[in-house]
Amino acid sequence: SLAFFNGEFLPTESVVIPIDERGHQFGDGVYEVIKVYDGKPFLMREHLVRLENSAKAIRLEMPYSVEQLEDLIHEGLTRAELRDAQVYLQITRGIAVRLHAFPDAPPSVSMTFRPSKSLTEEVFNAGVKVALLDDERWLNCYIKSLNLLPNVLAKQTAADRGCFEAVLVRDGYVTEGSSTNAYAVKDGVVYTHPANKRILHGITRAAVLQVAAELGIEVREELYTPEFLLNADEAFLTSTTAEVLAITQVDDTVIGTGKPGPIVRKLHAKFRELIG
Ligand code: PMP
Question: Might you name a Gene Ontology BP term for this protein (predicted)?
């Protein structure tokens, strides 16, 4: 597969990142994942604007404009000859001898271009099981930071329990998944955690809230408890790679009928129309 590192497109296997790279040593950087459907990077502008916001939040100056990044992504996709792809893009505080304070170094930019790993229609039709776990992350979860250790640990604990995802709980309320946003549906109303500092402001989340408005489905961006989720009629996750994915079981509790419900199915179908 193809990669980009600090100005050059190279085969992924041949890129070597210097040991004193701050992404490597400190996780000192931010990232995005963009899905490409039939040659078109989906919601690319939105992802790149979020990247700019994440960079600003960690006081990292973006080495490229959104337009320049769009051009680089298109160039990478052309070079990689990929139509259905996932683009990973990260920006770090660069290469410098390991000291915590900011170095006097230009940021590093890396990207990979890989065939997309979409979930199968069987998974969408069946829905997934999730595990409720403590949200042990920091207080700035709106920043798409490279520091994913709590997310990695939560995802692995969920996987160890045979679950697709960990749904996280902080101070008695459901925040989001380890790599997804989370929703509960009760009496036809969709509930999801408000877009504050405790969750990542998902690009898919924003698109799905738009889709819900178009469908006349009421959404409340409100706190809800794990108990509320367990008693929901439907529940679902959203992310760039998982799109709109029904939760049919939370730990030992079956949600609704145990199958993706009507609201999840409507939202996913309408979301897919956006992909076009
Ligand atoms: N929350 C977290 C913690 C994530 O890592 C992700 C995936 N980037 C999401 C939510 C979903 O965000 P998006 O829809 O932008 O992919």
Answer: D-amino acid metabolic process
